[in-house]
Amino acid sequence: MIDRSPLAEFTGQVALITGGGSGIGRAIALRYAAGGGDVVVLGRRREPLEETARMAEKFGGRAEVVTCDVRDPEAVTAAVNGVVGDLGRLDALVNNAAGNFISKAEELSPNGWRAVVDIVLNGSFYCTRAAAQHMLAAGRGSILNVIASYAWHGHPGTVHSAAAKGGVLAMTRTLAAEWGGRGVRVNCISPGPTETEGAGAALWPTDEARDRVLGSVPAGRFTTPEEVAESAAFLLDARRAGYVTGDVLSVDGGQWLGKAVYTDPRAGRS
Ligand SMILES: CCCCC/C=C/C(=O)SCCNC(=O)CCNC(=O)[C@H](O)C(C)(C)COP(=O)(O)OP(=O)(O)OC[C@H]1O[C@@H](n2cnc3c(N)ncnc32)[C@H](O)[C@@H]1OP(=O)(O)O
Ligand SMILES: NC(=O)C1=CN([C@@H]2O[C@H](COP(=O)(O)OP(=O)(O)OC[C@H]3O[C@@H](n4cnc5c(N)ncnc54)[C@H](OP(=O)(O)O)[C@@H]3O)[C@@H](O)[C@H]2O)C=CC1
Predict the structure, then answer these.
(1) Name one Pfam family in it (predicted).
(2) CA-CA 20 to 30 A from 100: which of 149, 191, 231, 267?
(3) Residues with beta carbon inside 6 Å of ligand 2?
(4) 243 has catalytic annotation
């Protein structure tokens, strides 16, 4: 549940959110709308995007839908140019679309590797490149990349996603330095395990796997999409986070720190 933001921090501004038809992307779109902004949600399937747009419109702003596969650079450029053509500006881009599944690295097919790396790394670059052409010309903009902590610590079974997210992290820091003097900020947000349409079935399909994931989170519960969205709003807001660029904000209940080995009561973990 997302309530109208008393800050109204995005009034008169426009955000493009990839993968905005579900999970974390939908929550970020709704939080931006709750802050008074206009939103465009992008993904492959129209129906879930339209549902997000209907929910966002209840906050009183404009909400549009673009069907597009982020792996197609020409379609991405047309989509971004269309947003600016229709809504007149682009203040924020959230690279949230992702694909993921668990596979042993030695059994992962080249096409399976390509599917995930193309969506996560290449797709994020295509969207960033197209959005930055408008943002740099305007001298303002904020780009937020949704990653995962295995971008820096790695994780067995997700070599494609970890490598792609690691690439997005390197891209973030590079572009933050490259564009820092031109008004465009680039940051990452790193959610902990979050029960969404895509993640649950792909990553913790059984009760046993789900319990194992929960056991890895010091806070003892899943992240909620709304928690991620609230921190995303902070990073996107130039008034509050205008001097933050090239950084990663973890919203994970301490998961990436909580590599407990001595899980017994004497260690404070059981
Ligand atoms: C624990 C905390 C950290 C959690 C971090 C979470 C990160 C997340 O990203 S959660 C978000 C998860 N959401 C999704 O994955 C939703 C979107 N997913 C997809 O679109 C698909 O899963 C996709 C990534 C496979 C892309 O779909 P599509 O382009 O339609 O690809 P294909 O179905 O044609 O498959 C391409 C290629 O990949 C192989 N493959 C697909 N699934 C699997 C699998 N489960 N295991 C092994 N290989 C798989 C598929 O076989 C194809 O390869 P070839 O057969 O060689 O052609
Ligand atoms: N859930 C979790 O536990 C965690 C998630 N994350 C990250 O958070 C982000 C959101 O995850 P979550 O909400 O769980 O994911 P979901 O699977 O629920 O949503 C992913 C979205 O991306 C869209 N998408 C996928 N492929 C493409 C594509 N090729 N082109 C355009 N859109 C695409 C999907 O829509 P459609 O299929 O219609 O295209 C869908 O709306 C991702 O970047 C993920 O890696 C990070 C850490 C943990």
Answers:
(1) adh_short_C2
(2) 231
(3) 18-19, 21-25, 43-45, 69-71, 96-100, 119, 146, 148, 191, 193-194, 196-199
(4) no
Question: What is the C-alpha separation between 22 and 44, in angstroms, rounded?
Answer: 11
From residue 235, alpha-carbon distances to 28, 72, 186, 207, 249 in Å are 11, 27, 9, 34, 9
What residues contact 162, with CB distance under 8 A and at least 6 apart? 148, 150, 151, 154, 155
Hey, which of 16, 24, 65, 124 would you mutate to test ligand 2's pocket, going by the most ligand atoms within 8 Å of its Cβ? 24
Residues 6+ apart with CB under 8 A from 224: 27, 194
User: Model-level pTM?
Assistant: 0.97
**Are the CB atoms for 34 and 2 separated by under 8 Å?**
yes
Under 8 Å between Cβ of 43 and 21 = yes
Q: Which atom of ligand 1 is nearest to the CA of 149?
A: 3
Looking at residue 202, its pLDDT comes to: 86
CATH among 3.90.780.10, 3.40.50.150, 3.40.50.720, 1.20.120.1200 for 14-267: 3.40.50.720
Is residue 261 over pLDDT 70? no
Percent of the residues in the chain that have a pLDDT greater than 90, as a whole number: 93
ipTM: 0.98
194-220: per-residue pLDDT in tens? 999 999 888 999 999 999 999 999 999
Q: Is the pLDDT of residue 163 over 70?
A: yes
Mean pLDDT confidence for 126-131: 99
